Amino acid sequence: MKKNKVIYRISTGIVCVVMLFSIINFTFIDHYPFPEGAFVHLGLPPFFKMELTIAKILGLMALLLPNIPARIKEFAYFGFAITLISACIAHIYTGDPFFPFIIDPVFFLAALVVSYVYYHKTEHPEDRRVLQ
User: Fold this and answer.
1) Closest C-alpha to 113, from 3, 5, 7, 38
2) Per-residue pLDDT for the chain (132 aa), expressed as one digit of tens each?
3) Cα(51)–Cα(97) distance, integer angstroms
4) What is the pTM of this model?
5) Can you tell me the distance from the alpha carbon of 33 to that of 96, in angstroms, rounded to the nearest whole number?
6) Distant-in-sequence, close-in-space partners of 131: CB < 8 Å, separation ≥ 6
7) How many C-beta neighbours within 10 Å does residue 28 have?
8) Residue 63: HSE in the Cβ half-sphere, 13 Å Cα cutoff
9) Rounded-to-integer distance, Cα 67 and Cα 50, Å
10) I need a labelling partner for 95 at 20 to 30 A (CA). Which of 4, 16, 38, 104 fits?
11) In the chain, alpha helices (H)
């Protein structure tokens, strides 16, 4: 059981650090790696930046704070998965290079899946039959 908890915490930590970095980068810096800004480069409307930032903050809170209901955590996992898949699609659509712009979201999506699976293995052992 201890091994499962370690895998869950490491994978969740990776996902949370990436989401925190993206919040900081898109909100405060927004000129790395694209001089015009990532949202302009990807052709996204300006208001979407604020919506995505708020959603990521709420998702981070759902994953990191204790005693959050399981259903809320499920929404956070789903929202982060949609965000990472959408990032991959947006970078493919704009013709960005495979590494790092397309492979990074895929790698972090894999970390999110590991976190999700081990969340259920450690926090909700009664759900094991669903994941097997």
Assistant:
1) 7
2) 799 999 999 999 999 999 999 999 888 888 777 888 888 999 999 899 999 999 999 999 999 999 999 999 999 999 999 999 999 999 999 999 988 899 999 999 999 999 999 999 998 666 555 555
3) 26
4) 0.89
5) 11
6) 117, 120, 121
7) 7
8) 28
9) 27
10) 16
11) 2-24, 38-41, 46-64, 70-94, 103-123, 128-131
Amino acid letter, 62: A
Q: ω before 69 within 30° of 0 (cis)?
A: no
Residue 78 token pair: 């789903």
What tokens appear for 32 in the block?
Answer: 């790395």
* Length, in residues, of the chain: 132
**Lookup: tokens for 28:** 């405060």
Q: Are 10 and 2 in contact (CB under 8 A)?
A: no
